[in-house]
Amino acid sequence: MSSHHVIREGQEPAIYLRNSSSVILKVLHNLLEWSPYLIVNSDTLVFCKDHGIKPDAIVCETENEVDFFIEIIPHLDTLNDLDQIKKWLKSRNCDQLLIFEDMNNLKQLISTDPLFGVIDRNIKYSMIRERILKWFPEGQKLFLVNTESKQNMEFTNLKKNNQALIVINTGLVNIHSNNPFYLGELLE
């Protein structure tokens, strides 16, 4: 990006460190350059302190051990942590959230909500409603996560390789499904 790139409010996603074992520091630091908010929970607050990272807000049940300068996202018994954060972000005109967490732990919670993206170590997952047509280089690894147990997936220019799909030839990849799905791409 050039030095005159202007970021509009709500344009870049907030980051929620839900599970510190899903964090690669280099990936996190690169994202923090653009992210408007870093949100933590009681467990990941310790991780941030250990690595000299200052969060903006915390979602927690108690105010114990919370730094005076960190905003507390109110705990409501009727909402899970993601719903609490979603409500808090909407009040700040931020409509995207990248969650550092194991994708398998989130599949049911995030379902098909386009607000949420997931970073699981070095893979970034984005929700795709039905179809994606995107250019990829030959050999690029992609990961698909279904949102339904019986989901039909069709794709071109990809071959299966264990848990991943590999781009056959540099160019457009077309993935289509009868239901929303998550597409995972390796971060560098």
From TrEMBL:
Superkingdom assignment: Bacteria
Protein name: Thiamine pyrophosphokinase
